[in-house]
Amino acid sequence: MTDVIDKSELETRAARLVEAALKAGADACDAVAITGVSLSVDVREGKVEETDRSEGDDVTLRVFIGRRSASVSANTLDDPRALAERAVAMARVTPEDPYAGLADPDLLLKQIPDLDLLDSRELGAAELKDLALAAEAAGLEVAGVSKSGGASASWRLAGMVLATSHGFTGAYTTSRYGLSMTAVAGEGTAMERDYDFDYQTFFADMEDPARIGRRAGERAVRRLNPQKLTTRTATVLYEARAARSFLGHLSGAVNGAAIARGTSFLKDRMGQPVFAPGIRITDDPLKPRGAATRPFDGEGLGAGAFDLIDDGVLRHWFLDSATARELGLAPNGRAHRGGAGTSPGATNLTLHPGRESLEDMMRAAGSGLLVTDLIGHGVNGVTGDYSRGASGFWFENGEIVTPVSEITIAGNLKDMFARLRPGSDLDARYSAASPSVAIEGLTIAGA
């Protein structure tokens, strides 16, 4: 499979762009060359609905003339000189940005680590079809499941090279496998649906298709005959799949760009308690086989793990070089490439688990809401106000009583973070990894 992507060819493309940009008059520049291939098979009711194979290449050149910059992209590199000349001409007429520029050369990664990101197994359409059909068959066997909402299996390979005019060249290749199944329970207007899935860097780490399909079916059946709640205040538990959303809200709030703009509800909280004592949240770009693992960031900087939240206290912003300059800080290797340049962001973000199981937290709460699905975005990043549609289960005496739907959960993330209590069931497979969490005293708006 590694023959599909030739890293030496990617390195050549990037190097040619850098050379052309310097000859065209750029003071500094960097170039990214990306290529990828993917294959997916979708099935429904035992038949293949769609098989999709895609291959793509992209190059992006960013040039600097003093503190002016511009970026151009192309799908092919037939004429690197023309692309470079266009970028330089654009940069000459753009406004100056006092924070623009390449990363400090002293901070560039000197040796590219091997992070075990590439599985050599390539899956063909027949194998992907069999995986999807197996998941679907298992879901349909669950009592109460009326039909399949479809199953999908996929394989993807991607390669990336970054080259800069001040001496950095780095490359890495990643693989990704996926499998999902959606089950439908009930009939007519009483139908409910749910899903289950798995995505992994190595195929050997994938869950058994039958387990994925069976869980999708069981989840759909559990949702049948939902009730509506009256408006109340209660303890709300989020199962791990839903609790991951809090890491997304936190990541946006500690993004250096939001801090520099003053548009984060945490902008004044550095070094202060944000979560309860004992809460630890780690960001780790070097996590073995992680979904967002990478040997270097979008500027060529290496980075290690750090505790974003340590014993409940906020310790870091996510910073690329530009936002670090604006804030008077040092970048921390969290630059992501995108569009015309870089932006800061998380890598593998993990809320470390507590000691209580989900069942223990339900028993401790007595009664409350277990959220299994969230709808909409409903978060104000400036104020922290939170309002999201949800469905799940109402529980009494620690036991599930009835499924519920068409409800809204409201609060403010400042207060919610402070009261958040993690469970023990960490799901570490994804770039935002969380256990179930419990939050007391949230408003539930119902009928």
From TrEMBL:
Residues 29-91 form the Metalloprotease TldD/E N-terminal domain. Residues 232-446 form the Metalloprotease TldD/E C-terminal domain. One of its GO terms (cellular component) is cytosol. Residues 120-224 form the Metalloprotease TldD/E central domain. GO terms for molecular function: metallopeptidase activity. Gene3D superfamilies: PmbA/TldD superfamily. One of its GO terms (biological process) is proteolysis. PANTHER family: METALLOPROTEASE PMBA (PTHR43421). Belongs to the peptidase U62 family. This is TldD/PmbA family protein. It comes from Pannonibacter tanglangensis.
